[in-house]
Each structure stands twice: as C-alpha cells, then as structure tokens.
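User: Hi! Is it possible to get a structure for several chains at once, not just one? Here's what I have:
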Amino acid sequence: MKNPHYISTVFSLFKKELMSYFNSPIAYIFIGIFLVVGNWLFFSPFFLAGQASLRSYFMLLPWVLLFLAPAITMRLWSEEKQSGTIEFLLTLPVTNWQVVWAKFLSAFIFMFLSLLLSLTLPITVSYLGDLDVGPVIGGYVGGGLLGAAYLALGLFISSLTRNQIIAFIVALAVCFGLFMLSSEMVLISLPQWLANIVNSLGVGSHFYNLARGVIDTKDIIYYFSFTGLFLWLNVKVLELRNWR
Amino acid sequence: MIEVKGLTKKFADHVVLDNLNFSVRQGEILGLLGPNGAGKTTTMKILTGFWPATEGQVTIAGQDLDHHALDLKKRLGYLPEHVPLYDDMKVYEYLRFVAEVREIEKEEILARIKDVSAKCGLQKVIGQTMAELSKGYRQRVGLAQAIIHNPDILILDEPTTGLDPNQIVEIRELIKTIGQHKTIIFSTHILAEASATCDRVLIINQGKIVGEGTPAELTAKLSGSASLQVKVKGPQATVLSAIQALPQVATVQAQSVDSAEVTTYAITVQPGQEIKEELSKLIINNNWGLLELSQTQASLEDVFRQLTK
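Assistant: Yes, the chains can be modeled jointly so their relative placement is included. Here is the combined structure:
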C-alpha cells in the first residue's frame, strides 16, 4: 500500500459502522431473535432423535442466515443514501474500497458475534453425549463463509437503492434463488451435465460439504470468489455515482 | 488556488452546468449566488470530488482533481447542504470519527475536538445524540467537522439556511474569522449574505455564470453611476449652473419645485466619482439652504434580479 494510513482508516470507518449497530436497540433484538430461533429449531427435534449431533442445526443454519444477512446489510448503503450522509462519507479522504471493506467487515463481525453466541449449542451437546467435533468445526467455518457471501451480496444490493425495505426483500430473494440452485428440487429437473454445474454454482452445496466436516479448498475458494465478486461490484457502483 | 475550466455536468439529457469557468485565489471568500436550482450545489459536489464532471477540468493547488482526488480531499473541508449527520452518534463520537479518518494524530484529537467545539459553540451539546440537535446546532456540528483538520479550502453549501437571525450573524462572523486564513467557497441565495461576507461573488443562473465581481463592482456595473437627489433653498437658475459646473457631475436637472425658493434637483454622477462632500460645501459656501441630500444606488438585489430574470 502506498498509504501507510490505509488500514487505520479502514479501522476508523469500521469502528463507526460497528458503533451504529450497537447504538440502537436493533442489534440486541436481532441477536436475541437469532439465538432464540436457532436454539428452538435445534432443541425441538433434538431429544426426539436422541443423537449427540448438531446435524439438524447446521441443516437449518443456511435458512436462518438467509434472513439474517439481508437484515444486517439492508441499511448499510440505503440509509446513507436516504439521509444524505453518503455525501459526507465519500468526500472524506477515503477510497471506495476502504469504505466497502469497512462496511463488509463490520457486518461480518456482527454476524460472527451472533454465531459465536450460538456456541452454547455444541457445548451443551458435548456434555450430553459424545460429540463429533469435525462437523461442528466444519459447520461453523461453512456458516461463516456462507454468511460472508450473503453479506457481500446484500451489501451490493443495498448500494443500488435508497429504500431499506427494497434492499432487504431483493437481497433475500436473490440469496434464496442462489441457495435453491443446489436444492434437490431444482437439480432433479435438470439434465445430469447441467445439474453438476448448477449444483456447484449454488451457495448451498458448498456449505453442506463443509458441514459434513470435510474442509475442502474448492468450497473455500468458491465463497472467497463469490464474496470478492460482490464487493468488487459494490465498488463499481460507487465509482459510477449515478444517483442523484 | 482553484481553477475551473469548461465545467459541464449533465444528467441524462438535462444540462445542469454549462461550461463554467472561474478561479478562486488563495485566501479569498467566494460567494456562489443564484436562485434555487441554478447549479450551485452541483458545482460544489464536483469541487469536493463527490460527483465526476461530465466535461471540464478542476485544478486545486495545481493538482488535477480527477487524478489527485484523495490528496485534495485531505485539504478540503466540506459542509453539504442540509447537513447530513449520523443521527445515532453523539457529537463527540462523530467529531472523533472525522478526526481519525482525517488522519489527525491520536494525541492531538482531543485538543482539536475541544478547539472546534469552542469555535463553533458546541460545548453544551457535545455529549448529545445528533438526532436531538436543533437545526442551528446541526449546522455548527457540520461546520466543526469541516474545519477540524484545519483545511486550506472550505466549501460550504448554504451554511445559513434554516437558522434564526442571531445564528445567521454568528455563523457569518465565524466564516469571516475562519476565512482570514483560508480559501472559502460558499453558496447562498440570500443577497445580503453575499455582500456582507464575500470578497467576490459569482452569480449563477441555469448552469451558467451570469455575473462576476466584488459586491461593489457588481452593483456599480448595473447602475453605471450613482444618482443623487438634493433639495436646496436658493435661486434655481444659479444653483443649477453652479452644480453643473462641478467636474464630477454628468447631468443635473430640476426635478420638482416645492416653493418659490426650494427646488429638488436630480443629479447623476460620472461613473466611479464621489460628489456628496463637494456638493454640500458648494451649497453652504453660497449661503443656500441644504435641506435634503440622498443617494439612490442599485443594490445587489437589483443586479441579481436583472441577471437571473
């Protein structure tokens, strides 16, 4: 980096973003709902199955993240546009990449925090029985990566509108569509050769690979490129500055 | 300090700025004056690097804005119109954030925050959330964040809109004080403000510059010359010829006769000349009675109306 302050500027922007989550009660409500829903969905069938495994939790995690991620990202750009603060923000001596990084990282840390708080689940289960740690680690790694991909997509969509609700619904719809690409329902209706391609494009299949406890570089590269692509697109939207 | 050449901005087919050319000298306070929608805000958004220009070139301190945007943004302070602030932040949190991003040394940040909050009168509200602030205080916070890094150039978009008369005077004084060491561009649609604060005024209408000069120059240009009315008690013919004989006088005529002795004369003066003193001396030396002397001069308001009609 030419500029020695590059990272510290990103960090200052990041702090401001993170502060805005916790300055309002929304963050706490949000984490609360995530934990309640996650625990409830997990424990209600848990005792019936009688297995010391988190499989059912990780099966559901992509669905929870599907709602969680767009809810985190919806306001990130839309609110700045709506209130006009974007004008102030982008006339500071910062690059578009710095701002996008700061917003993405703050969203990621916020989601990661929610995920960390759900670690009570594997801890409880490991007391109740013999827990296989591999899939748990894989599940959390996969959850983090899948979340990052959803967040990058949601952030990009938020930069296209000044309306938070639209940002939320569109992000949710697109995330859902990309997730459904690798579902049985879609794959079964396609010819075999196409099904393979579509399956590897969908965001879901890579998560389930990881959640099985198999940490494959292919899946990790997939999520990194997915996230990178949408962050890059976000920067391009900022460069255009074609809003009024 | 700032050079603008051929600046044009289009939105789709709508031309907002049409080939603007102007320059701002170092230490000058330049007022952008124009009716609402004339292109003042657009000009400022381009100068601050927020919007790219469709055509044209902006050079600040010898550097091209397109290629040195990041460096130039560091030297600039900007108060956007309507003062967008992060409503959920507290005033000091916000100022600290700006100071950090503006790369002010850690040890110095607190001192700077104290300094600008004293200058802008923010001590009372420093711990409040910005959503709670009144319009006047928001404006001051906006101004504080614009000067916290001690920039060479300040760009202020309608810094006094929405303020009460006392606040307007305060902000104007503040701008003048700050302006002693800085180059300032500020926009307004209030004429009195431009003539009270600016060294030079640029009048913009429909994306074009329609007038430029100091407030005094602009008014002089319009009226061409000052005109006087004087009511004198004395013999009309003698008075008339005596006034005519003064070198500064262009024309003089008897306007109205009030009584046998008292006549009102209308005088137009040669451009750029002062006459009041000599005129009164002339009348008194001749033992006539000077009953009334008034000057009628076109105000900036007239210039503005005439140029933007």
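Chain A has one domain: 6-240. Residues 6-240 of chain A form one domain.

User: Great, thank you!
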